[in-house]
Design a protein that fits this description.
Layout lengths: L6 E7 L4 H13 L7 E7 L4 H8 L6 E7 L30 H4 L6 E4 L3 E3 L3 H5 L8 E5 L7 H11 L7 E8 L1 H6 L2 H12 L6 H10 L3 E3 L20 E3 L15 H8 L5 H9 L3 H22 L5 H6 L7
Parallel strand pairs: 1-2, 1-4, 2-3, 6-8
Antiparallel strand pairs: 4-7, 5-9, 6-7
Helix pairs in contact: 1-9, 5-11
């Protein structure tokens, strides 16, 4: 008999990411089991009524959509270099996943997904995965493979084996366990005390804190475009991580799936124009950003305060 428990799926966005979330939702809903109940819980910083209405229209009889603003308790996370995504810009939305367990005591288990994804399979299958007593289930971050500066940064600054470093864009969360260990309070105490410089702020904190309590999911649940790896014919979730965005570039691996679901997103014209208007200047800027990330990774290793160095001094970083 099928599990009828509601499947909560969390996303975090602001207005700029509403069109991409819409594509993610269309794919998630279309591939869901019609005999189960789901709820997309959209945590947002700023989201216009127009975007809320457009996204709300995607809901179905068994797939609800709820919007929840989140700012309370995050006052200490401010725009500083150590808190910036891709070393370039600041957004609170990347930190929202760290507060889900505390904010939603009604759920013992839940899924967090970034909005730059498409689902090719039923997200309920991921929800049903038994991760035992681990804090989270996640996939290895294959985007760093072969990039030695990043691997060195993970080993020497985050203090984690780079082959066990996970991507935080897809998280199967043991919310009950995360509450038991008071995860969000521990995160805030580390942030406020040390403000660790990070290349991937939320992701590095999650890896440093949860290492040793992670269930490693099959790569099919976080398949990223990567031309150095064979295409994954078993992929159930495509994650257009970092700069591999089909709404910016042509010929992105797995990009055809994005455009397939974009047709029903309500933002198809916007997305087409976004791709058409992505300029050579923006392409050069993204290349510069990637080079800056590599440079920052190597600089952070030499900082006096890193996750690894603080941990070696006896400070409790890993829960």
């Amino acid at each position: 008999m099928k599990n009828k428990k509601e499947v909560p799926v969390f996303f975090s966005i602001d207005d700029s990411y509403a069109p991409f979330l819409s594509v993610a939702l269309v794919s998630t809903i279309k591939n869901s089991d019609k005999n189960r109940n789901y709820k997309a819980i959209i945590l947002y910083q700023q989201l216009s009524e127009e975007n809320k209405q457009k996204l709300s229209k995607l809901a179905t009889s068994n797939f609800k959509i709820e919007f929840i603003p989140i700012l309370k308790g995050m006052e200490s996370i401010t725009d500083r270099k150590s808190n910036r995504l891709r070393c370039e810009y600041f957004t609170l939305t990347i930190y929202f996943r760290l507060f889900i367990a505390a904010m939603f005591p009604q759920y013992d288990k839940g899924i967090y997904i970034d909005s730059d994804i498409v689902l090719l399979g039923d997200i309920g299958e991921l929800f049903d995965t038994d991760i035992s007593d681990n804090f989270i289930g996640a996939c290895y971050d294959h985007s760093i493979e072969g990039v030695e500066p990043f691997c060195k940064y993970i080993r020497e600054a985050v203090g984690v084996d780079n082959k066990k470093y996970i991507n935080s864009g897809v998280l199967l969360m043991n919310l009950k366990k995360l509450r038991e260990v008071d995860f969000h309070t521990h995160f805030l105490s580390l942030l406020n005390e040390y403000h660790f410089d990070s290349v991937a702020p939320d992701q590095d904190y999650i890896n440093a804190i949860c290492n040793g309590n992670i269930y490693y999911l099959d790569d099919m649940w976080d398949t990223m475009p990567n031309t150095s790896r064979p295409e994954n014919s078993d992929a159930k979730l495509i994650h257009y991580n970092l700069f591999s965005k089909p709404w910016c570039y042509d010929n992105i691996q797995y990009g055809e799936y994005f455009w397939q679901y974009a047709k029903d997103s309500g933002y198809s014209e916007y997305l087409k124009k976004h791709r058409e208007n992505f300029t050579e200047k923006q392409i050069k800027e993204e290349k510069r950003c990637l080079e800056n990330m590599v440079k920052r990774a190597l600089e952070i290793i030499n900082n006096d305060v890193t996750f690894k160095k603080v941990s070696e001094k006896g400070v409790k970083v890993r829960l």
